[in-house]
Amino acid sequence: MESLRTLLDRALHPGQGFAERAREAPELAEAVRAMVLLRSPVSFIGLVLGYVGFGALYTQIATPGSSFWSRLPAELLDRIDPAELQAGLARLPALPSLHAALPALVLLAPVMVLSLWMHDVAFDHMALWMLGGLKTGRGVRATCVADAEALKVGVLGAALGLLSELPVVGWVLGLLLFPVGIWFWVLRGHALAAWHGCPVWKGVVATLLHVLLATVMVVALIGMCVAMVFIAL
Known about the structure:
The protein has one domain (about 5-230). Helices cover about 80% and strands about 0% of the residues. It contains twelve helices and no strands. It has helices at about 5-10, 15-25, 30-60, 65-70, 75-80, 80-90, 100-130, 140-155, 155-160, 170-175, 180-195, 200-230. α7 (about 100-130) crosses α12 and α11 packs across α12 (about 200-230). The chain is elongated and about 70 Å long.
């Protein structure tokens, strides 16, 4: 397992760092295993913070007269029958306690890491193909290793990103850390360039095209769902 100092040096000097790592030719299994081991604890902490935040919001929604309901526009509240609202909220199931949810969150953490990796591989490889950045003999396996290595380095940014989950000041820290998040996204472009032997600009643009492709697919999916609702009506 590489040290955090090595990962930090690669994050600060991605061109040289990923080129040297690509020359070492790590095995796919080795890269994925290291990625999962490094990112799963950060993913777990994020899941715990998210569950606690969601639990607090859920409790407010399920409690008539809470601050959640007091912040809603008076015009909307006037249209709701208080008796029906209270009866409906009373039927909401209670969330499992954090202690009870911990085993599921432990299992979910590596699944989320692997899901993120597979998502990146699919869209990055497609985007790099569209840009003509794929070379003969360097197929999807190279993209798999590159994205695993990039996500391994990206654990530093993911750990910093946990600060945005803090109450009250989290949104301020999130804004301050936004450039850091962008930089760690660009790192993936350097990794793609190193493993596929293409210009760095193609690797970086591939990650931007990734965003565009994913956005188009999400918008298309939402549009199809809305169209199906109107057709059903």
